[in-house]
Description:
The protein is α/β, with parallel strands linked by helices. It has helices at 3-28, 57-63, 84-91, 105-115, 147-160; strands spanning 41-42, 47-48, 74-78, 97-102, 121-125, 138-141, 165-170, 185-193, 195-196, 199-200, 206-213.
Amino acid sequence: MNIIQKADYKIGGHLATKQDARIDKRICGQSLTEYVPSIYRDDSKGVGSTGSHSTHYLMLERIFSNVTITSSDALIDIGCGKGRVLAFFLKEKCPAKLYGIEHNKEVGRLAQEWTKKYDQVQIMIGDAFTLDYNPYTILTMARPFLPKTLLAFIEHLESTLTHPVTLISWCDQQGIPVLNGRPGWSKQEGGAILRVKGFKLFPWPQAYSVWAYDPDKRK
């Protein structure tokens, strides 16, 4: 990346973050932009969870522009962090019940605090591997796990889900390809995002993908 490209990203990322903070304060009463490192991460072994890095609202608008969510859906954000994804759905007046699960108590409690005024939202603090995902129809995640842990999580879903679900994942270059050709999983949409509405959001493109999972097709 040359000097001009670095400046383009620095300016774009800064302006997008400023816009994010304004929306956060309107929806959440506070900014959710601060990064919180993971306390459960081991890069040398490719296991554990990633830190709490809130996705830009502009990126979320692009990812979910073709995803239909209705009042009969129940959506859970896996590794919800401080709750930016849930704030996005509140901003968009999403009709579904919204849930989040977060392992890091510090950021999970922050999410619980600002969402308590929204009856539509419930935040759980705990291990995502212990949760039953059958009550949910839509699962979202912004690379909450390192590759080996992500594979174990997919296996957990496959061993417990009894009905079809939609999985939307982003910032997933290092993990979600494990679903390619995997029985029961079919890719509905995918792409990479670098620039949205004139803002260069990242130093390099960030992938996203939408998957349908049907347990009957694994048989």
